[in-house]
Write a structure and sequence with these properties.
The chain has about 850 residues and is an all-alpha fold. Helices cover about 60% and strands about 0% of the residues. The protein is built from 45 helices and two strands. Helix 30 packs parallel to helix 33 and helix 36 runs parallel beside helix 38. The protein starts with a helix and ends in a 31-residue tail after the last helix.
Length: about 850
């Protein structure tokens, strides 16, 4: 027995149902919506408002936004649910900027704690749990008479109908209004929230410094508060306990701390670590002068920091500051701090120093750079910690690259780099400490060392230049035979970069064998090679290029099982055309392209079709080759496989998209295209209809109907009379007004007669029902005449939708109302009126007579 409506939701609390109804009420003002959603007990409501607050707050009166929305922000920033804070933290900078850009700022002084005119927030707006003001004469929001008031509605009544301050007087805002809120988010133990808050602070600083419309005095106040109050202030929480107390409340006014930040000393330690992280991210933004004045003194204090993870972040901050500070400050201030951290007893700190070594060296003079680089790499490569030694391997390539373009790299650094590869015999002199220090700790058991070496090889070769290739060649060749696929893939991806540096002769001599080796490797390695196939071939001597070109068909055969690799080869065809003369293009690249356009995978065919404009460009100046290419392309138009005929139309479309000359297009292709207007396969006609529509749309071709050749007009007429709705839809807009009027009238007349005679309406579906024969083809091109039976009828809609997507048409195309089936019961044809070439006629539709 069905449950009555009254009992259907009996298990749902009444207050919750009414709250849900109220929250869905479109009559709520933005302020009411913000208030109710923030106060809601449902998490997804608070998540929603946390994301939408930046847009909703723009529709709130600014005085109300300051007095009522601002305290609610603190509820979101300290919400007990992580999802709410995760949604709120990325948006907080937008909300804060709204307040900064709409409220005049006033620095916090004893004289302006209470303004003369009673303007709200002339005192600093530190987050305090808002107490809803009691106003006996505040008008209530209109309520539905038959619905009793819920607790939330009662809260809503307490919102003011008018701002507390006159709208002519904007409320003052303290620059420190949001500092405690930002600190709460930055100190959140949820790392995603803390990370989002750091990004928000960075965005806020960028906007303050770069926004041109900010008043200079207010800009100075904001800059000071953001850099000193937020960034540096979070590192001084142990000195300012009073500020931290303002964070310790939740949405119900309880004296609890939300965000799970440990109290006391742990909070202060986390604050100092966050300060160092912010200094690292903000250093490139704030500039050298502010970094030297504000950040360097704080960094100097970290030398005596007892907590290792604070020192770890401070070491990274040294590198960030070194990237922008002048050399004098680097040498006098930063290097002593760096040297102190480099010998820290905790390996995390030493690893951070290792990671910023290259950045510091890049700012030093050549002699100092060489000395510092050698000293640093020897120190870290011989460290007792495996993590520090691995970091030394990771940065060695970047460190060597800092000597580019001079190329005067200390030999010890080169040997450290080569020691990452497989063990080898060499005649190059190795300085005593360097090579052995690195190998002793790790030996050859660390599988990541060859990966690091392979990844950094292009940078090292670029820095050392062609003259040092012979010293690097043995290690490189040994890496190409490494057992790890990721080593060989990294080398395959960068093979063309090595070839650019060492020149055509050495590329032919040393890299061609490696190129062939990688062609027979695993698919992952081949993929790295195929992505830069043309770039590598370009680095070969011209005679070697010509000799290798016929082998491209063998390359295609080698990836016959992997369509993505064939697609990568097809993407290289335009670049390959640029590297060879017209005869080679016709003899070798065109056959490869034809293989690609006959591929079984549509993506490969589409990629190859797009390369034909480049093929034509390559043979443009050779009349014989040009004629031969046109002949080869036109063979597709008469091919027995419908897919080839579609390819012919697509090639013409690709040429049109690249502004192929109109006269040549008409001379070479229009006759063959006209024949396809009567093709037996609908896919061919759809492709042709799209092309004809494009030709008639483009001004440089046949937009002017008076200049259209007979072939275009014949195709338009035939395609407009096609049985398929998709074919008709592409060309119908380009018929002449008379043809459109005539066609609409005849179509509706035929449909009316069909309805009067009790026949099904004229449509594609009715053709299918009556057993319309469609020529389909198998891969061996054998034609098969298939009558669609009743089972296939059930798939008609699905196939139609799929075909619409394939041909770039929306299934809700407005032309379908005219060109497709018009569902009618009975039409009186004598009242049809065609107006403005549209079917907006006065049709009288009624039920059929009994």
């Amino acid at each position: 027995m069905a449950e009555s409506p009254e009992n259907q939701y009996s298990d749902v609390p009444t207050e919750e149902m009414e709250e849900e109804e109220l929250l869905l009420d479109d009559s709520l003002s933005p302020l009411e919506k913000i208030f109710l959603y923030v106060k809601s007990d449902l998490v997804f409501h608070r998540v929603f408002i946390a994301k939408e607050l930046p847009s909703l707050i723009r529709d709130v009166e600014i005085s109300e936004a300051v007095e009522y929305v601002l305290p609610l922000m603190n509820s979101l920033g300290t919400d007990p649910e992580d999802h709410v804070r995760e949604a709120f933290a990325p948006e907080v900078d937008k909300i804060i900027w709204f307040y900064y850009s709409h409220c005049p700022l006033r620095e916090n002084t004893p004289d302006n704690v209470q303004g003369d005119n009673g303007s709200i927030n002339s005192r600093p707006m530190t987050p305090q749990r808002p107490q809803t003001p009691q106003r006996p004469h505040t008008p209530q929001r209109p309520q539905t008479p038959q619905r009793p008031q819920t607790p939330i509605q009662q809260q809503l009544q307490q919102l003011p109908a008018q701002p507390q301050t006159p709208t002519s007087h904007l409320p003052y805002l303290s620059p420190a209004a949001f500092t405690p809120l930002l600190h709460a988010l930055l100190l959140d133990q949820n790392t995603s929230i803390a990370s989002a808050a750091q990004s928000a602070v960075q965005s806020l600083v960028e906007r303050i410094l770069e926004e041109p419309d900010v008043n200079p005095k207010e800009k100075e106040l904001l800059e000071k508060e953001t850099l000193e109050g937020v960034v540096l202030g979070i590192g001084k929480l142990d000195q300012e306990k009073a500020k931290r107390e303002d964070l310790e409340w939740d949405a119900d006014g309880d004296d609890t701390s939300v965000g799970a930040v440990a109290g006391g000393e742990e909070e202060a330690e986390l604050g100092r670590m966050t300060m160092m992280t912010l200094i690292s991210s903000l250093a490139p933004i704030v500039g050298a002068e502010k970094c030297a004045r504000l950040f360097v003194p704080e960094l100097d204090k970290m030398s005596d920091e007892p907590v290792f993870y604070v020192r770890k972040e401070a070491a990274l901050a040294v590198g960030s500051l070194a990237g922008i500070l002048p050399l004098e400050i680097i040498t006098s201030k930063l290097l002593p701090i760096y040297d102190h951290f480099s010998t820290d007893p905790i390996w995390h700190v030493r690893r951070s120093c290792c990671l910023v070594l290259a950045t510091i060296c890049s700012r030093l003079p050549e002699e100092m750079k060489a000395e510092r680089a050698v000293k640093g790499i020897e120190l870290f490569a011989g460290d007792v910690s495996r993590s520090v030694r691995s970091a030394a391997g990771e940065i060695i390539g970047e460190l060597i690259a800092t000597f580019h373009p001079d190329g005067k790299v200390p030999e010890s650094l080169v040997q450290h780099f080569l020691s990452l590869g497989p063990i080898r015999d060499t005649t190059i002199g190795i300085t005593s400490v360097t090579g052995s220090a690195y190998n002793t700790g790790l030996g050859q058991r660390d599988p990541e060392r060859p990966v690091i070496c392979a990844y950094n090889f292009p940078a090292v070769v670029l820095t050392l230049g062609e003259s040092r290739w012979d010293d690097l060649k043995d290690t490189y060749i040994s890496l190409t035979r490494d057992m790890q696929i990721k080593v060989r893939r990294s080398l395959a991806c960068s093979l063309h970069e090595i070839a650019k540096v060492i020149g055509p002769s050495k590329t032919d001599q040393d890299l061609m064998s490696i190129f062939r080796l990688f062609l027979d490797d695993m698919d992952d390695v081949k993929s790295g090679l195929m992505e830069h196939l043309a770039a590598f071939i370009e680095c070969l001597p011209q005679n070697t290029r010509n000799d290798y070109l016929p082998s491209l068909n063998d390359v295609w055969d080698g990836v016959n099982h992997h369509w993505r690799l064939r697609d990568e080869i097809a993407k290289q065809i335009p670049e390959l055309c640029r590297l060879f003369d017209s005869q080679n293009v016709i003899n070798h690249i065109l056959p490869l392209t034809i293989r690609a356009v006959r591929d079984d995978v549509a993506s490969v065919r589409e990629t190859a079709v797009a390369s034909f404009p480049d093929l034509f460009k390559a043979v443009r100046n050779d009349e014989s080759c040009y004629t031969d290419m046109i002949k080869r392309i036109c063979e597709f138009a008469s091919d027995s496989k419908f897919r080839s005929r579609v390819v012919f139309v697509q090639i013409c479309n690709a040429l049109v998209s690249k502004d192929y000359p109109k006269e040549e297009f008409a001379r070479h292709f229009l006759n063959d295209l006209e024949k396809l207007a009567s093709d037996g396969v609908v896919n061919v006609r759809i492709a042709l209809a799209r092309l004809v529509g494009e030709l008639c749309r483009m001004e440089q071709y046949y937009q002017d109907s008076s200049s259209r050749p007979s072939q275009i007009n014949n195709m338009l007429r035939r395609l407009a009379e096609d049985n398929d709705v998709d074919v008709r839809g592409f060309v119908f807009p380009y018929l002449s007004p008379e043809e459109r009027s005539k066609f609409i009238s005849s179509t509706i007349q035929a449909m009316a007669e069909s309805a009067e005679n009790g026949l099904p309406p004229i449509s594609e579906e009715s053709d299918i029902d009556n057993g319309r024969s469609i020529t389909q083809e198998t891969h061996d091109s054998t034609p098969i005449m298939t009558n669609l039976n009743n089972e296939e009828k059930n798939d008609t809609e699905k196939n139609k939708e799929s075909r619409d997507m394939e041909n770039g048409r929306d299934s809700d195309d407005p032309l379908d109302a005219i060109m497709g089936e018009i569902p009618i019961a009975f039409i009186r044809p004598n009242v049809i009126e065609v107006e403005n070439n549209r079917s907006s006629s006065g049709l009288i539709v009624s039920s059929p007579p009994p």
